[in-house]
Structures are given as structure tokens and as C-alpha cells.
Amino acid sequence: MLIGYSETETFLRNCKDAVILTHQSPDGDCIGAGFGLKDILAELGIRSRVICCDEFPSPRYDFMTKAGAGEEFEPQTVIAVDIADEKLMGSYAEIYGGKVQLCIDHHESNKNYAEKTLLREKATATCEIIYDLAKYMGVNITRHCAMCLYTGIATDSGCFRYSCTTPRAHEIAAELKRSYDIDFAKINRYMFEVKSLGRIKLEAKVSDLLEEHLGGKLAVIAVTQDMMKELGIAPDELEGFAPLTIQLENTEVGILMREREPNVFKCSFRSADAVNVSAICQTIGGGGHAKAAGCTVEGALEDVKAELIEAVRKALDK
Amino acid sequence: MLIGYSETETFLRNCKDAVILTHQSPDGDCIGAGFGLKDILAELGIRSRVICCDEFPSPRYDFMTKAGAGEEFEPQTVIAVDIADEKLMGSYAEIYGGKVQLCIDHHESNKNYAEKTLLREKATATCEIIYDLAKYMGVNITRHCAMCLYTGIATDSGCFRYSCTTPRAHEIAAELKRSYDIDFAKINRYMFEVKSLGRIKLEAKVSDLLEEHLGGKLAVIAVTQDMMKELGIAPDELEGFAPLTIQLENTEVGILMREREPNVFKCSFRSADAVNVSAICQTIGGGGHAKAAGCTVEGALEDVKAELIEAVRKALDK
């Protein structure tokens, strides 16, 4: 059931011992939303724990997670943030599937799987919703919470670059910058700039891998496990690579294929402008946003690639 | 003489037939400020022309410049935007040196060379000042003007990434997004993402060129004219490369050296965090901002590099 801020406030003020679920392959928005909501619940005197089936990448997100995910307790409340589909809980779907009482999310592809869902598809990030929720509730936003919420908004908007960046996202950034002594540029540097030497070299290699298909309208970069091993790169270091696929002027759709397990490819789609890649991904079992979406496809590299190219060709033909 | 908004308004409302000077190697901020101010003057019924000693890079900035720089006339007013030092007029310094009546700028290194200067060193971009000036004056901001001013703010802030990004910059972005039907993401895409295949390959090559000095605290990338020729790259395509020099976690200062003419190196400095690179550049005849500054040094590649390393070493020793 879809609910608004008022009912969400009632739910949160009356819940206790909550686990806050974040999605697999956690990113800046779900980590920021999880730890930001944990801070808000703490202000209300409610204990909570942020959980994920995967480890939170370190040291990248340490400034949000190092305060601790929360003590151990028997959960009485299950909250999901930034999770559009129970499948995205990964291995935790077995434990928490069908048990989420409150979901806070901004994905238009949200499956409405929770008992109650606060969904704002237009929001830049789940962190934007949580900021507005905290303001609505009149709860104090701590400095740590402010860092978390800024990080989610910055990462999901590509640091205010993408079309999903709302005026509200800018207003929140302005409010946070006026109210807190936080080194925002340092956060941005860690989210968008700092790389290992290995990653810099991988990017150089990856740029050579850029393939043009469909007359240049589709660009694909495929990174196999062998390549990652050869260069000593962890899969989460590839997180910011997807935009590299839409660098060429005529590219309409870009796909980054990452081999997570042998013959299992996580495919991140980006739209340069008008094409809705969420719609394309939905035809192959995925979802996301109009300009940034994804899916996971099993098979040999060339077979998976052929399937993706065909799906994009159909969409472009429309 | 430093002046405020009120006196600037009086000057602008009473000027006629103005040339608006932008600096050499024009970038998003000086082009946005020049063409934005031209739009504002047009609203006041005052004709103006935007000029620069170099050509405005095309097609990158066409959306701002294609409306035309303005008709030919005998100038009666000389205005400079985003020019901290008359030397930065390039070859136009011979014509306009000592003749600038009004300068609007945000560089702390501004030499106060104009008759009147509206200087706000804290502003993210000259375009931020011009937006506030237009609001102060109550002048209508056209859609084209809005595109220009957004572009300047976005480019000088690294799309809201750098520490120079003020709360005001975010507020202006929010106001522009609420008021105008502009494809801001497309502007950002052209400013920060779109590259030629040649540039992508050059970046790959350049990444291999990254040199660490001073125990990794300084990173240098030097691009010679031979390299540019080999890859068919125009010098202005290297504009966004400087941040590549501060990608490694321990780097405090990064320098991009571009050989503009044989043995003449344009050196762009970036600070990752605390080091004031404007201060360093001022010791070798340059200037700029604390986190992004530059200078031009003549000499053989290795000699120039040694000079820069020494200047950075001294600054780090302090």
C-alpha cells in the first residue's frame, strides 16, 4: 500500500527494534539512506541496525558505516530503503521476503512488495525522501546523518549531473551546506574522483574495450573476471564505470557488463538522452530508472551480449 | 576601485555600445558570463559584443555562442568578465589594456586593474555574480541567459563537486530548474561527459603518463604537442584533464602540463584538499583559486617540470 509522510511518521514513531535493509551491491544512496534513517530513529530513541547481504565497500563508505551498523537484537520491525524489488535483497530475500513492513524508495519500478511503501518516483535519491521526511517530522538531523543524506543525493544524481537531479536536490544541498561544517568536496572526491592506480590502468584498458554497435547508437564495455583478476581489481571498484559507456556524442544507450560470477553478468544500462533504459531492462528481467537501469543475465559472454544488443535494437526501432 | 551591486547597476544602465571581454583559452564560465551579460544588456536596450583573443571552442559551446557575439560597432564601453589579470586577455591586452571600465570577477587573485571592479572572491563562478546582479537589478533573465549562467556555475564548480561550490550556487541551480524548461542534463553531458574517440584514447594514454613525485604527494601529467598531433587532438579538448592529476588517494597537488606552443607549457594546478595552489602559481607568474590555479612557463619539458616540482616541494614543506 502506498502511504504518505504522515503515515510514515506514525509508523516510525511507533516502531521498535528495526532492521533497515539495503540492496545487494550497496551504493551511496542505499547506504546513506540506511545509516541516515538509523540516525533519525536514534533521535527518536528507537534502536535499529543497517543490514545488507553484501559487505559495505571499504574504505570507500567508511565515513558513513564506521559508526557501526547497530547492535544485535531480535528484529520486531523490518524496513527496506532504496529496494525496488525483493530480489534485490540478494540472499536476504530468503529471510526477509514477504516481511517488509515499510519500504522507502524512489524507483519507478518499485514492485510495491512491502506492507506500506513511501514511494516518490520523482525524487533524485531515497536520501532526498528521507531528508524531507525528517524535516516533516521535525526530527533533528545530526552531522553524521547530514553526511549520509548528502552522499546519497550526490551519488544518485552523478553529483547533480543527471536529468534525475531535482530542484529539491539542489535546495537540500544548499540547506546542508549552510547548516553543517562538513567537507562536502572531500565526500565528492571520494565518491567521484579517487581511484586506485589499478583502477586508473583498468580504465585505460576499458577504454580500449569500448565497442560500438547499431551504427554507434549503442556502446558496450564488457569486463570479465579474468580481467579483474589480472589487474587486482575488486568488483565494487567498477561501480562508477557505467557512464564511460555513453561518452561518445552519437551514443544513445551504453551498457557496462561485469562478470560477477563465471558466466553471470551484471549489466548496467545508461541512456544518454531520450531512450528509457528501464523499459529495456524490464524486458530482460531487470529495472531501474529511465536513464540508469540494470539487469543480471546468465550465459556466455557473446550470447549475453547478443541478447542485450537485440533488446536495445528493438527499443531503438520503436 | 572595488564597487558593489548598486554602483554596478548604475554603470550598466548608463553604458552604451559595450564590448565584453572574455579571457584567453575561454571556458564555460567566461563564455557564460559574457553571453549572459550580453543578454542582460539587451534587455536594457543596450547593444554589446562578446569578444575574445581566441575563438570560442566549437561545437562544445555553440549553444551559448551561436546566437552571435553581437554586431560590429565602435566600442564606447569596455567590460571584462572573469578576467583576473590583463595578461589573461592574451593578444587583446595590447588593445584593451588599461581601458577596462568595469570588471566582474570572482578570482581572489584579481589585480584590480579596471576602473571599477565588482569582485566576489567567494562566488563559485562569475556567472553566479551575474545571476545575483540580474536579480538585484530586476532584469528579466531570458532562457538563453539562464542556460549561459547555469553553464558557468556548473563548469567552474566541476558540476557542484569542488569546495568552491557555494550554497548559493545550488540555490541558483534550483531556481533555474524551477523556472526554465532547459535540458540541464544535456548541458552537463556536453560539458563533462561527451568526448571524441580520439580523446578517449588520449585519456587512456595520458593515464599511462601519470607520474608520481615527492613521495606520491605530487602527480604530474605532461602532454606535448607531438602527442596531440599524433592523436589528432585540439588543445581545447584537453580542458577537462586537470582533475585526472588528483585521482590517487595520497596526491595533494596535481599538475597538467600542456604544450601550447613549442616549449611553452600551460600548467593547470589542482589541489586535492588543503594545499593552496594559487599561492604556488603566484610564485611562478600565475594565479587562480586555492584549489584550481595555473601558470604558463617557457622552457624545455624537463626544465619546466623540475621548476614546478621544486615550487610544490617548497609549498609542501611549509
Can you give me a brief rundown of this structure?
The structure is a homodimer of 318-residue chains. Chain A is an alpha/beta fold. The first copy, chain A, has helices at 5-14, 28-43, 62-65, 93-96, 126-137, 143-156, 167-179, 184-193, 197-209, 225-231, 277-282, 301-317; strands at 18-21, 48-51, 77-81, 102-105, 116-119, 211-213, 218-223, 253-261, 264-271, 287-288, 292-298.
Explain what you see:
The structure is a homodimer of 318-residue chains. By secondary structure, chain A is α/β, with parallel strands linked by helices. The first copy, chain A, folds into two domains: 5-192, Alpha-Beta Complex (inorganic pyrophosphatase (n-terminal core)); 197-317, Diaminopimelate Epimerase, Chain A, domain 1 (Roll). Helices cover 40% and strands 18% of the residues of chain A. Chain A has helices spanning 5-14, 28-43, 62-65, 93-96, 126-137, 143-156, 167-179, 184-193, 197-209, 225-231, 277-282, 301-317; strands spanning 18-21, 48-51, 77-81, 102-105, 116-119, 211-213, 218-223, 253-261, 264-271, 287-288, 292-298. In chain A, the strands form two sheets. A six-stranded mixed β-sheet of chain A has the order 6-7-8-9-11-10. The radius of gyration of chain A is 19 Å and the shape is globular. The two termini of chain A are 33 Å apart. The model of chain A has no long low-confidence stretch (mean pLDDT 93). Chain A binds chain B through residues 159-163, 165-168, 170-171, 173-175, 177-178, 183-186, 188-189, 192-197, 200-201, 203-205, 207-208, 210, 243, 246-249, 272-273, 291, and chain B through 158-163, 165-168, 170-171, 173-175, 177-178, 183-186, 188-189, 192-197, 200-201, 203-205, 207-208, 210, 243, 246-249, 272-273, 291.
